[in-house]
Design a protein that fits this description.
Helix content: 55-70%
Number of strands: 2
Radius of gyration: 18 Å
Strand content: under 5%
Structural class: mainly alpha
Strand order of the largest sheet: 1-2
Shape: globular
Order of helices and strands: HHHEEHHHH
Length: 223
């Protein structure tokens, strides 16, 4: 394996780790400032934009955007398009903050009314997670390798992609319908949905980065 490929695989591994840590980091590092954070700061990753842990939310999402802007895609237009969509969506989530109790009427880089900013924010967040799921489910599973390890990897990719799709539906249902009104008001359901989706995303990228040795093709291990 040449140096360029090693660097490429390392980048994939770091993306998986960063995204898997995003939700826990935003919550844990917000706890020291709990007394001064806005009410409901922990209800979603996006809400931590207004908390003491905002550096985690902004920094990790910005790094994700940089990764996808610079990602060395395969020679496939779908891969290139999805990479750019994911990069732009990650930036959009940062630039257009969400709505949460106690914030001013105008927010974000462009000082937009909170209602407009929140709508754009939610659109970018939805696009980002859907793009994650599409990438993992339909592009990660491409390839002519029919090795037993590749078949197992594809099952993991599909399971991770389906998990993201499923929790996208749960998130939509919880915010647009009364189906989840039984959930206690104090429970951060949105944060939990995001946490599950990001863990699935992180697992898929760690597998993609060859971090789990037993899932790598034997021929690759011998090189």
């Amino acid at each position: 394996m040449n140096l360029e490929m090693k660097a490429h695989i390392f980048q994939r591994k770091m993306l998986g780790i960063m995204c898997a840590l995003l939700a826990p980091a935003c919550l844990v590092f917000g706890l020291p400032g709990e007394d001064t954070n806005l009410p409901g700061w922990y209800m979603s990753i996006s809400a931590t934009y207004y908390a003491s842990s905002k550096i985690c939310m902004i920094g990790l999402l910005f790094t994700t955007a940089v990764f996808f802007f610079s990602y060395q895609c395969y020679d496939d237009w779908r891969d290139k398009v999805l990479a750019k969509v994911q990069a732009i969506s990650a930036l959009g989530i940062i630039i257009f903050p969400c709505q949460t109790p106690g914030i001013p009427n105008n927010v974000g880089m462009f000082s937009l009314p909170i209602g407009i900013s929140n709508t754009i924010h939610c659109a970018f967040a939805s696009i980002l997670f859907i793009a994650f799921a599409l990438n993992i489910t339909f592009l990660f599973t491409l390839g002519n390798s029919g090795t037993p390890e590749k078949l197992v990897r594809n099952k993991i990719y599909r399971a991770c992609g389906i998990t993201i799709f499923a929790f996208c539906i749960v998130q939509f249902a919880s915010s647009a319908t009364p189906l989840f009104d039984w959930v206690p008001a104090w429970f951060p359901l949105t944060w939990f949905n995001e946490f599950v989706m990001l863990e699935a995303f992180g697992i898929a990228w760690l597998v993609k980065s060859e971090s789990i040795k037993r899932l790598n093709d034997k021929e690759e291990e011998e090189k």
